[in-house]
């Protein structure tokens, strides 16, 4: 039948020569131990991806702490596209990514003032092509960290109290590309959940790598707020937490700015605590921005002032 989509079979198991395995171990999976390496190769074969072509990676978290040490297998954007293409019902969008920019957010932690990137992909189902959209937000994904500098007084490095965009990452060199890759990965997971659920793209975990969180752990922080939001609570509320345990409160929209300002005033002498608070509340603050941008901007400026 004209225009029909012909399913493509799953990829055959990839076979690696001994030399290939040795090269992968020295390069792509250099931080892995024997068990982690075996698991990584198993996952690469399962997905039918080639580590040497940078389609799939092994990242080890807390590698110097035996109790916390964990490995996560991460798929590159080319690997995600490859998996989706094998299904036979995928095609990329012809348009460029869309970006939302706010010049007031330009600074050392956001050189272009990016708010979010949106990417669309297409999936064929029920005789027609359907558009699937993914959006990624700078505040949630950019690897922003606390700056450390050498102190002659203490003879060691210590925090300066300043937040910076990780200069070693590609986020500082090509911020649009990195945010768009995250958005595309989100769209691909939405469209092909059977193949890509819990599969992360490398750009999505740059912040998690920086703070030594597994992608699943970082995602769970955001999912907790989303689960509570679905319990039928009023839509004119903002999910926020003000204690160290992370207890989420649904604050009425009209009170959100006052609650945030009161917290920031109380903790004004503890910039590191305020940074942690802002990270824990990134989803709530993003929602606050969507519903009350002027109030949210005032809170954002106060956060930046307190942590400068």
What does this structure look like?
GO terms for molecular function: DNA binding. One of its GO terms (biological process) is DNA recombination. The structure is a single chain. The protein contains twelve helices and ten strands. By secondary structure, the chain is α+β, with helices and mostly antiparallel strands. It has three domains: 75 residues, no CATH class; 126 residues, no CATH class; 95 residues, no CATH class. The strands form four sheets. Strands 3, 4, 5 and 6 form a four-stranded antiparallel beta sheet that branches. Strands 1-2 form a two-stranded antiparallel sheet. Strands 7-8 form a two-stranded antiparallel ribbon. Strand 1 and strand 2 form a beta hairpin.
Short description:
It contains twelve helices and ten strands.
Feature tags:
DNA binding, Phage recombination protein Bet, Phage_lambda_Bet, four-stranded antiparallel sheet
Topology of helices and strands:
Layout: H1 18-26, H2 34-47, E1 56-61, E2 70-75, H3 77-86, E3 90-92, E4 98-101, E5 114-125, E6 128-137, H4 138-141, E7 144-151, E8 156-165, H5 175-191, H6 193-196, H7 206-211, H8 215-229, E9 237-241, E10 248-252, H9 253-266, H10 271-280, H11 282-291, H12 293-307
Helix pairs in contact: 3-5, 9-12, 11-12
Helix count, per DSSP? 12
Outline the biggest β-sheet: 4 strands, antiparallel
Q: Which blocks of ≥5 consecutive residues have pLDDT under 50?
A: 1-9
Mean pLDDT: 84
Helix vs. strand class: alpha+beta
Give the topology string: H per helix, E per strand.
HHEEHEEEEHEEHHHHEEHHHH
Number of strands: 10
Strand content: 15-25%
Organism: freshwater sediment metagenome
Protein name: Phage recombination protein Bet
GO molecular function, one term: DNA binding
Pfam family, one: RecT
